[in-house]
Amino acid sequence: MYQRNIKSLYVLILFILLGWKLDFHSHASGIWELNAASLAVPGSKPDLPVQGPVWEPSPKSELNVGMQPIAPKRIMYQVNEGETLEHIAQQFGNSVETLAMENQLEPSQLLIVGQQLHIPSAEAVIPLPDDQPKVISQVMNSTLTAYTAGVESTGKSEGHPEYGITFSGSKAEEGRTIAVDPAVIPIGTEVFIDGVGIRTAEDTGSAVRGARIDVYMNDLGEAVNFGVKRNVKVYVLSASR
């Protein structure tokens, strides 16, 4: 045992003089032994044994080197019959020159029905959700009122089999349902109402004609307090191509 310890001491001194890196491991016997696998010669890159848990990146922690963040979808406007750049620019508060430059057009250029134009800064003015269609097919100034499913609005009481049922057949829901003139806004169409948000045309009404829109509410008091709001900007949406 004594001779073995002397030999180990000689080896230790030799390694120190040579500048090698040593890792010692203590064993239950109390005898210090060299772990040959852990010896690192300067300038070399040995495969060291793993002495702890290995961290592996999960899909969420991986770095996407060189990848750029995905830009939000741009809001487009679909040209209708008879519309000009000047008319469209006025609806969105842009200049004709800005709209033309954004879409690489001449200010006096004739537009084609169904042509889609990018509206500068529309993303900030019209905060549509990411999963929402980003094509506007019509812009109008509407008069807004509110209604409920009750007798005062529909003539039906809660016991009526059609109470709360809209023209489309769905049950009216606050935050989604509006009544429209189908000749202006087709049933099933989604619209963005300035100051109100996204709504779906699901119902009709005898007093709802032209650009007027009735916003559905559950509470009669809230509907009365809503009052009449005039010249409200409404953006009629269509599915993007």
So how many helices? 6
Helix-strand makeup class = alpha/beta
Low-confidence stretches: 21-48, 57-72
Q: Which bin fits the share of residues in helices?
A: 10-25%
What's the SSE pattern? Answer: HEEEHHEHEHEEEEHE
CATH architectural type of the largest domain: Beta Barrel
CATH structural fold name of the largest domain: Barwin-like endoglucanases
Q: Give the full name of the CATH homologous superfamily of the largest domain.
A: RlpA-like domain
Mean of pLDDT: 79
In short, what is this structure?
With 241 residues, this protein is an alpha/beta fold.
Describe the overall structure.
- With 241 residues, this protein is an alpha/beta fold.
- The chain has two domains: 2-38, no CATH class; 76-238, Beta Barrel (Barwin-like endoglucanases).
- The protein is built from six helices and ten strands, in the order αβββααβαβαββββαβ.
- The protein has helices at residues 2-18, 85-92, 96-102, 122-125, 151-154, 220-226, and strands spanning 24-26, 32-34, 76-78, 116-118, 135-147, 177-179, 190-193, 197-203, 213-216, 229-238.
- The strands form two sheets. Strands 5-9-6-8-7-10 form a six-stranded mixed barrel.
- A hairpin with a 3-residue loop joins β7 (190-193) and β8 (197-203).
- The longest helix is centred in the N-terminal third of the chain and has 17 residues, at 2-18.
- Residues 21-48 and 57-72 have low confidence and may be disordered.
